[in-house]
């Protein structure tokens, strides 16, 4: 029905709606210059290549971070707001996963330098709104530092968020055995089942059950921090319950996260908040 309807409109000479391209890498330089003139939002998704337990591939954070960035951007573009998604930055800060193998990590200074170079390039081309969308927990602190450092330096609003914190409410409403997204868990396994079921080794999910040690908050409450390797926390490299994962749940998570991120990015008042102070006159 849908296909024949579109064909009929085309044969009648009726203009069909054009899909707006949101991927930076697919556009020409002249098209990107026009996007800058339109004050397009630019999203840089940042992930990692690191172990994800006995049942998931090492690209989980990169694949999921890019997916929610693109899906959110499509929703924003559908509302007429210009937006672009840069190619995924596929590596980040994953020293805490190195003992399991398969992990690629940067050090802090290199990671911050890469973020700085990318943001500076984007701003030099005339873009004035940058989003650092994080898909890996180990990147979170450094990406906030990057936003703090680069906002006054580049004099543009730089937004930083980790998608499972920014979309905590819809995630919590969908999960059945966890309150939020963790690592190779109910949430991440479900989303990978929805996106790439061929990469999920379902027969190895039971291997995720292993010895785990208490989290710091379980011992002393909130507000205290200690760096720990993942292997010191979980012998399998999993934190959470992948046995509760389903592809249906995964698709609901992707949609719910994208809807929530788009809603926040479309908030005009959010973008117009003052962020640089004028000199004080005493």
Key phrases:
4 strands, 282 residues, globular, Rossmann fold, alpha/beta, disordered N terminus, four-stranded parallel beta sheet
Could you describe the 3D structure shown?
Belongs to the creatininase superfamily. Pfam families: Creatininase. InterPro entries: Creatininase-like_sf, Creatininase/forma_Hydrolase. This is Creatinine amidohydrolase. Keywords: Hydrolase, Metal-binding, Zinc. This protein is of the alpha/beta class. It has one domain: 3-Layer(aba) Sandwich (Rossmann fold), CATH 3.40.50.10310. Helix content is 44%, strand content 7%. It contains 12 helices and 4 strands, in the order H-H-E-H-E-H-E-H-E-H-H-H-H-H-H-H. It has a 4-stranded parallel beta sheet, sandwiched between helices. Helix 3 (60-78) packs across helix 11, helix 7 runs antiparallel to helix 11 (247-265) and helix 8 packs across helix 11. The longest helix has 19 residues, at 60-78. The chain is globular. It starts with a helix and ends in a 10-residue tail after the last helix. The model is unreliable at 1-17 (pLDDT under 50).
